[in-house]
Design goal:
six-stranded mixed beta sheet, binds adenosine-5'-triphosphate, three-stranded antiparallel beta sheet, alpha/beta, Rossmann fold, binds magnesium ion, globular, 8 helices, 2 domains
Length: 253
């Protein structure tokens, strides 16, 4: 992929045509997908992951750089250049973090010595629970796993498209993630209920009844509201830490 994907309209849950002709998403963009539970966010993410060719329930068609993807581009893990991180993503290998990253880097012919350290320290910016190189990947928590895979996708993976399905409430520092992905020439798409993510992305896709209803571009007003949301987040995190440490609020026994 050199520059963009195009989504051609499919149908909503009732089989009615979606209200657009095509939507172009470019490398370098950070996009969010929002909408009520059941509105079709995960299906849209999976349409992009599969590069659907009118063969999913939404009947959307997706092209890469204006070309139809061939079979390998869609289904061969070697050729497929789309990384997907979901709520349930788990590493299934017996390796420790360091080996896991080393093998991935080697498989991509990257021999940079400090790379493994870099990935771990980037992952540790995303998660509050520190990851060490000696930890087994299967024993990482959900938040640690997603943070590690995200850092891995940015620094080692060559995937130009990174899809993230719901990382809120996952012990992940979202503003750090957004800060990093903005500097990468990747298309990053978050399906999210989290205002801190939604307000920080340049574009948001609104889902309703299985259809893309509209696309909203980021404005200065969004930026102002985002500041308040982040401030509120900081308060919540602070109180959360205190509660985890066993703080008692008045009363007591
Ligand atoms: N365009 C569509 N046509 C037919 N079925 C659809 C369409 N869009 C979504 N669905 C179906 O509706 C159900 C809910 O969609 P989906 O899981 O994508 O919602 P969601 O927005 O991710 O919800 P949540 O916020 O709970 O994760 C799924 O079974 C999905 O396959
Ligand atoms: Mg979903």
């Amino acid at each position: 992929m050199k520059s963009h994907i195009t989504i051609y309209a499919g149908v909503d849950k009732n089989g009615n045509k979606e209200n657009y002709t095509k939507i172009i998403l470019k490398l370098g963009e950070v996009v969010s997908i929002v909408g009520h539970t059941g509105s079709g966010k995960t299906l849209l993410i999976s349409d992009i992951e599969q590069l659907s060719q009118k063969d999913s329930v939404s009947q959307r068609l997706i092209t890469i750089d204006d070309k139809l993807p061939d079979f390998e581009e869609r289904f061969d893990p070697e050729k497929k250049r789309i990384a997907m991180i979901t709520q349930n993503t788990k590493c299934v290998s017996d390796l420790v973090v360091e080996e896991f990253l080393k093998i991935h880097a080697l498989s991509r012919n990257i021999f940079e010595k400090e790379l493994v350290e870099k990935v771990i320290s980037l992952a540790n910016k995303f998660t509050g629970e520190s990851i060490t190189g000696e930890a087994k990947v299967t024993e990482l928590s959900g938040g640690q796993t997603r943070s590690l895979l995200f850092a891995d996708a940015i620094l080692i993976g060559a995937s130009p498209i990174i899809l993230v399905d719901e990382i809120e409430n996952a012990g992940i520092n979202k503003s750090e993630i957004l800060k990093y992905v903005k500097n990468e020439n990747k298309l990053v798409i978050f399906a999210s209920h989290d205002p801190a993510i939604v307000l920080a992305t340049e574009k948001r896709i609104i889902m309703k009844n299985g259809a893309i209803e509209k696309i909203i571009e980021h404005t200065d007003a969004d930026r102002a509201v985002l500041e308040s949301v982040l401030e509120a987040d900081r308060v919540i995190k602070y109180v959360q830490e205190m509660l985890r440490d066993g703080l008692e609020l008045g009363g007591g026994m």
